[in-house]
Amino acid sequence: MKSKKTLITLIGGMVATAAITTVAMSSKPDANIYFAKAQEIMKKDFKAKGPAKMDRLVPDDAIKLCNQYDNNPPKEMAAKFEQEMLSAVVYPADGKYMGDWKAGNKIAQSGKGFTWKGGPVGGNCYNCHELSPKELSFGTIGTSLRNYGKLRGNSEEIQKYTYGRIYNSKAFNLCSAMPRFGQVGALKEKQIKDLVALLLDPSSPVNN
Q1: pTM of the model as a whole
Q2: What residue ranges define each of the domains in the chain, with the CATH number in brackets?
Q3: What is the C-alpha to C-alpha distance for residues 29 and 76, in angstroms, rounded to an integer?
Q4: How buried is residue 152: exposed, middle or buried, by Cβ count under 10 Å (0-12/13-18/19+)?
Q5: For a FRET experiment, which of 2, 27, 61, 203 has its CA 20 to 30 Å from that of 158?
Q6: In Å, what is the CA distance from 177 to each residue of 66, 71, 142, 174?
Q7: In the predicted model, what is the mean pLDDT of residues 44-61?
Q8: Across residues 36-54, what is the average pLDDT?
């Protein structure tokens, strides 16, 4: 049988442990600490290669804001950034937003990135979206784009909106996970036009 002193020590230890656990569970983790550690790990593991430089690991102010508020920043703050990005969207000088949907379909299926050799960078759209019913494999990170043009029409207003959304989706939804294809130079003007056609042309598999 344990002595009274031993029992008191054990009970005291259990109480102290419970108290520490309660405080740890009730304390809100400091996101900045975790973010700093994540940055440290990425900088250690990732190496610059070709056009993929280390500066890609440094988030801009918009991403920092989304991280800070868990992708739900105050509307006023988000609107300010969105307006700045929207004003920076470079629309086609000829005022035409649609190209060739067949070329757009190839871009949508291409997963080529900046570090690939040969050929332009692809859109890799099927990685996140459902587009054509004939495509057997597609991601679900993004919303389904089936019947995109059939539901919205292909007015000039919709064409311009779609072009801008591909150019920089964050200009319309600050915390969108969609890459800023035009802003970062991943897709050129003609490629974005072809993707707009893929989404809006009535003959496109997206709308059939």
Answers
A1: 0.80
A2: 44-208 (1.10.760.10)
A3: 26
A4: middle
A5: 61
A6: 11, 10, 8, 9
A7: 82
A8: 81
Say if residues 162 and 178 touch (Cβ distance below 8 Å): no
The two structure tokens encoding residue 204: 């496109």
The set of long-range contacts for 48-56, using a CB threshold of 8 Å and a minimum separation of 24, is: 49/115, 50/114, 50/115, 51/114, 51/115, 52/114, 52/115
d(Cα 85, Cα 201) in Å, to the nearest integer? 27
Please give the structure tokens belonging to residue 173: 């939804």
CA distance 101 to 190: 11
Q: List, for residues 121-154, the tens digit of each pLDDT value.
A: 999 999 999 999 888 889 999 999 999 999 999 9
pLDDT number for residue 13 = 43
- 125/104 Cα distance (integer angstroms): 10
Q: Which two tokens stand for residue 106?
A: 């190839």
CA 35 distance to own-chain centroid:
17
Task: Give residue for tokens 């072009």.
Answer: 163
pLDDT band per the 50, 70, 90 thresholds, residue 1: very low
